[in-house]
Amino acid sequence: MATTSNMFLYSLTIQPPTTISQALLGQFSGTKEQQIITASGSRLTLLQPDPRQGKVNTILSHNVFGIIRSIAAFRLAGSHKDYIILATDSGRIAIVEYLPKSNKFSRIHLETFGKSGVRRVIPGQYLAADPKGRACLIAALEKNKLVYVLNRNAQAELTISSPLEAHKPGVLVLSLVALDVGYSNPVFAALEIDYTEADQDPTGEAGREIEAQLVYYELDLGLNHVVRKWSDPVDPTSSLLFQVPGGNDGPSGVLVCGEENVTYRHSNQEAFRVPIPRRRGATEDPQRKRVIVSGVMHKLKGSAGAFFFLLQTDDGDLFKVTLEMVEDAAGNPTGEVKRLKIKYFDTIPISTSLCILKSGFLFAASEFGNHHFYQFEKLGDDDDELEFTSDEFPTDPRAAYKPVYFKPRPLENLVLVESIDSMNPQVDCKIANLTGEDAPQIYSVCGNRARSTFRMLKHGLEVSEIVASELPGTPHAVWTTKLTKHDEYDAYIVLSFTNATLVLSIGETVEEVSDSGFLTTVPTLAVQQLGEDGIIQIHPKGIRHIVQGRVNEWGAPQHRSIVAAAANENQVVIALSSGEIVYFEMDVDGSLAEYDEKKEMSGTVTSLSLGRVPEGLRRSSFLAVGCDDCTVRILSLDPESTLEMKSIQALTAAPSSLSIMSMEDSFGGQTLYLHIGLHSGVYLRTVLDEVTGELTDTRQKFLGPKPTRLFQVSVQNQSCVLALNSRPWLGYTDPLTKGFVMTPLSYADLDYGWNFSSEQCLEGMVGIHANFLRIFTVEKLGDKMIQKSVALTYTPKRLVKHPEQPYFYAIESDNNTLPPELRAQLLAQQPNGTNGDANVLPPEEFGYPKAKGRWASCIEIIDPNNEEPKVLQRIDLEGNEAAVSAAVVPFASQDNESFLIVGTGKDMVLNPRQFTEGYIHVYRFHEDGKDLEFIHKTKIEEPPMALIPFQGRLLAGIGKTLRIYDLGLKQLLRKSQAEVAPQLIVSLQTQGNRIVVGDVQQGVTYVVYKAESNKLLPFVDDTINRWTTCLTMVDYESVAGGDKFGNVWILRAPERPSQESDEPGSEIQLVHARSYLHGAPNRLNCMAHFYTQDLPTSIVKTNLVVGGQDVLVWSGIQGTVGVLVPFVNREDVDFFQSLESHLRAEDAPLAGRDHLIYRGYYVPVKGVIDGDLCERFSLLPNDKKQMIAGELDRSVREIERKISDIRTRSAF
Amino acid sequence: MADKLRAQQELERLQSKYIGTGHPDTTSWEWKTNIHRDTSSSIIGHPPLLAYAALAQNEPIAKIRAETIRKMFQPVGPPPPREGEELPVLRTE
């Protein structure tokens, strides 16, 4: 078929976006507890703040497969539960409820009102709900506004009316809030700009000054229509509105925030206006005006009418704004406003949303960087901060006034409790294996200004170590055991050495026990608490049963020894060196009874497993036996059929370890599994049928090169499997997705492990590593990625790695920021220079001083491999230069010595693009790259936006020109150049003689370098305008890339032109080739195209797991990390395609966006299957799963296996 | 003739419902203004794009959003004078 691609990829998200575009507070569970709903990208996330621990936990994250533009919460009168309204790009309004029991979002209403997509006049940009939950208004950026009336019917169900229109053409909306009017007719306030007049006036008189209006829209509930009730011009620079409490709580109305002012406005009140204080400081521009960027209103509990605002400026300073009311004769406040007051509160990072919890916490969703969770120490009531009131300032925005100043200071009213990791914005990302582990790590640069970080992301679970103590020898095994059945905690740690056993007691201190009854002169094979109060020790020569100090010894038959053993509370099984299996069971009187017959196995037994005795039963009914003939057999232990074989499974290698255990499954119940570890390092999990003993549904994963050993441990009341290989791994059921996952622990490699439980540490693990005994716990099962970060100085722009050494070089630059040399100059000029330095506040919290047109830029050397990653050196760029690109280039003319090349621009203005000069700096590496020496810089006509090494020389994209440079003594030497791109080269990739050029707006061009004639000749270019951000070559013909609109695509050059371009002597043809439609003679073919929602900033082809295939890893600006996994066979493609189409129908996106259209937002989706949608299969109710499975002619388990396989094979 | 009338009415309906729907006499200024306004509204509506712009300019997202909306007011300057009318400034020259 012509329409389908012959290349298919499976798209998966391995780290969801961490940005928060909006956060809302509410009681979404219907209990008193306050929760936070956040919108991040296409995900709706429910967070549960925990005031006792001072933490914020994620409860649920739901991908709605649509762009969430705005969210609002409302509560019907008399109800205790908040509903969520979603305004997305679906052209529909969705009302969603959180169901705490099933931990799901459930859609109650979905009303279509317009076209889908983000459009100028389709409502969705703004959303406001009446505080009494009677109506909501959804508005577009321009013209359209729709009001929905919310009500309840006789069954107390939520109803929604048909929309009421409040359109007005030619009107732009800047901000929209619902007014608090108590129980009178709902009113919505909008800040609007009308352009109709300016559009009609050719003189430009009307357009000279923008006039902003505050407009009230009233919904008349009686007449059921909306009227434009009141409008009044406000300060033309206004951009934000805040609701002022009304009804019994306050005067109603809005705060209008504009440039350097906050004004109180209401239809029946006078205007009151306070200025926003400016920062005072040596490095501050005293003329700079601040604007409010976010804020929150909070009503205080108890006293009616007590409320305050926290408003944040573009510096991050929080101001507390309060209203004072006119008092009547009795001294009680009336409904009339007397004055507005403002004072400095604290400084926190710039936020998109602020949520004040009743428990006295503040959740600040940062627009960039980590989100913060603060606790209020006080409300800034009685401090000596200067307070400014509206009495001293004119209400007319044009009237002159004297600006006011304040001095920022460290936090006084707030205390930071938790910082929630966020990779937003992620600017660049590299994947490398620098730690010497078997899987590579992700290194990325994120954040902005002084809150920029370099982060190292590793797949793994965080482990906290409790004890690591040295032992006299090197044990080869460790167990813990209780003394009696009723003990809560473990009492002994038993260590087995090559020819001895050591018993330690667990208590305040760990001491050796001499009267344990254990035989200490032999190694031990197994230890188990048995029956009521017995313990058994199995050693190569026999079984020692210790009951209250009395010892019963069972000796192994002569000339044979025990090679493997397994035991549980009631049963013991041993395997002899002769291949016989001996089975014991507890008698009623507490002694061990041997089963008469021995079962002979065909090979040597390598491992045994019994599994725990199920609750309420006497015995585990299966025994798993692994033999060195690469088989696992399941034997029955039922009294009627003792040691009869139930099933057998052939394996690819000899099993090294077995474990029968029941675990939570995706159906919500418990399933019995047999976990198998192989000598080859592979781990298998199969379902063990509880009746027949059949083994079905095998899933496998390669863990490492060593034999895998398995142990049953318990984490968060969940049975988990600890698998030891070159790294320790933990297999568990993910608390959010309910799928089984195998995740490495970020810990030393262990030789043996066991469960550990004591008073201090309820759910721990004990392990041995060489001659160390280690006790540790895994506290959080949700987070599969471990982050380590190091602070950078300015907003990172690019990250490059040293070719051999494990060092990274980040180029960073901040626009409109005072560079350090000017900062120092200003500080030195300060009159009281003596304490000048003490006045500098940490830029991480307070930001750098601003200066228009100035750039602060630097290069930093990062050592990620340290215990704590750190910055080794910083090189500041001077003369208003800012770094824009970087590369490490080996120059053939210098014996292939590598140099760091940094491209800079001088006096750059971003929009419209301007600059005075461009430079290319060359740095030499010293001390293996720990140090840089500046060699020279070359002046060029434009800042070079892309640099790469090319055949022992430097290839630079300078504007439209592609140029080859060689290294000279005084500067770089031009070798060859050509104009190849239509607008601006932003990305370059190369293989052989081929160069792939990405243009900022016009897509991709392939260029061939002809060494004989020293010419650069474009030969293929693109069919559509791709606003390229990143590129990587997938193979010689194909290139994968991302664009500014959030698409990821793969393009391929047609075969013939591709071959012809490399033929010797083809330059004559290429030079004289007829250009096709004003472009290159040929066009690229699109192989795959996919809309990701996030804006890709980097893309690389690499492998992510041990023994995994190559995948495409892309990083997004909102903090997303995604992979595209190529399909190997057509069968899988067909399967996933039909699964995807079933899921589209059965699990339609929550907000009503059509999934197929969403993924084909700009260009129809091609050759990519959405793995995130496929993975929602495991979250479907059972009947739907069965139905889809029936349609696909497969079992539910099989489908789940395929979904989990494709993820585990190549990603995490 | 009735068909033509209906097509005309349909077009007018579209023009009033969807701003920017063209007509045979769309001027270059109208087209440009419309495209600019569409672009700005798309940037504001896609959070990653807005974040990208804010990050590059080193300004808060909220500020860039407000600035972008203000730019929609008159993105390419005032309209050209209508036929027969001339700008008073030009007349003096």
UniProtKB/TrEMBL annotation, chain A:
Keywords: mRNA processing, mRNA splicing, Nucleus, Spliceosome. Its main location: nucleus. Residues 856-1178 form the RSE1/DDB1/CPSF1 C-terminal domain. Belongs to the RSE1 family. GO terms for molecular function: nucleic acid binding. Involved in pre-mRNA splicing and cell cycle control. Residues 20-420 form the RSE1/DDB1/CPSF1 first beta-propeller domain. One of its GO terms (biological process) is RNA splicing. One of its GO terms (cellular component) is spliceosomal complex. It comes from Podospora fimiseda. InterPro entries: Beta-prop_RSE1/DDB1/CPSF1_1st, Beta-prop_RSE1/DDB1/CPSF1_2nd, RSE1/DDB1/CFT1, RSE1/DDB1/CPSF1_C, WD40/YVTN_repeat-like_dom_sf, WD40_repeat_dom_sf. This is Pre-mRNA-splicing factor RSE1. Associated with the spliceosome. SUPFAM superfamilies: WD40 repeat-like. The lineage of its organism: Eukaryota, Fungi, Dikarya, Ascomycota, Pezizomycotina. It is found in: Nucleus. Residues 464-778 form the RSE1/DDB1/CPSF1 second beta-propeller domain.
From TrEMBL, chain B:
It holds the Pfam family SF3b10. Residues 72-93 are annotated as: Disordered. One of its GO terms (cellular component) is U2 snRNP. One of its GO terms (biological process) is mRNA splicing, via spliceosome. It comes from the Eukaryota. InterPro entries: SF3b5/RDS3-10 (IPR009846), Splicing_factor_3B_subunit_5 (IPR017089). Belongs to the SF3B5 family. This is Splicing factor subunit. It comes from Podospora fimiseda. The lineage of its organism: Eukaryota, Fungi, Dikarya, Ascomycota, Pezizomycotina.
